[in-house]
Amino acid sequence: MDPQWLDWAKRLQAIAQSGFTYTKDHYDVERYEAVQRIAAEMLAAGTAAKVIEPIADLLSREKGYATPKVDVRAAVIHDDRILLVKETTDGGWSLPGGWADVGDVPSHAVEREVREESGYEVRAVKLAALLDRNLHGHPYFPYHAYKLFFLCELVGGKATQSYETDGVGFFAGDALPPLSLTRVVPAQIALMFEHHRRPEIPTTFD
């Protein structure tokens, strides 16, 4: 769960972002700018950032009514091993996936992510979990996000690296490589194995 300072900063940013969307009053805009600046200062202080401006710029780019972002992840389990890709950004391994795009059907989004990041063709067969990122031990993150985990069936393709990944492989649950904890934590992979072995259990959700 997020520390209190991060929760406050995210909530202030959401108030400011939504306020910008609906207000037409110049003075209200100035107030929301001040609220957003406070959120940036809190994030900078909490993360020991030396410069506030990059964080303030990042927050100012968020437009429209503030809602959680949606991250889709694929659990492709074959011969009791799960497909992971090695992320170029941090060198950790993760379930294939990423942010859903506007206009995406969730199941199509996760199938596309697998194809682009690993080279494999899959079919989404079950929404295994819908989780609040804040509640599952991920490192701190400036946005609120929901994570959708799909069980996917392997239907073709071959291991292929991409500009986002420099490794592709299947791993046993008790022999996982170092994970990209920003994207996935060990308990979530264990949960995917449980759903694979017990397909009758309902979707897990927060």
What would your notes on this structure say?
With 206 residues, this protein is an alpha+beta fold. The chain has two domains: 57 residues; 137 residues, Nucleoside Triphosphate Pyrophosphohydrolase (Alpha-Beta Complex). It is 35% helix and 28% strand. Strand 2 and strand 3 form a beta hairpin. The longest helix has 21 residues. The protein is elongated and about 60 Å long.
Would you summarize the structure shown here?
The chain is α+β, with helices and mostly antiparallel strands. It is 35% helix and 28% strand.
Task: Name the descriptors.
206 residues; alpha+beta; Nucleoside Triphosphate Pyrophosphohydrolase; 2 domains; 8-stranded mixed beta sheet; 5 helices; 8 strands; 35% helix
Topology, please?
Elements (H helix, E strand, L loop, with lengths): L3 H19 L3 H21 L6 H8 L8 E10 L2 E7 L5 E2 L2 E3 L6 H13 L1 E13 L12 E13 L7 E7 L14 H12 L6 E2 L1
Parallel strand pairs: 1-6, 5-8
Antiparallel strand pairs: 1-2, 1-4, 2-3, 2-7, 5-6
Helix pairs in contact: 1-2, 2-3
At the third CATH level, what is the topology name of the largest domain? Nucleoside Triphosphate Pyrophosphohydrolase
Portion in beta strands: 25-35%
Helical content (DSSP H or I, runs of 4+):
25-40%
Which whole number gives the mean pLDDT? Answer: 91
Note poorly predicted spans.
none
N-to-C terminal Cα separation, in Å? 13 Å
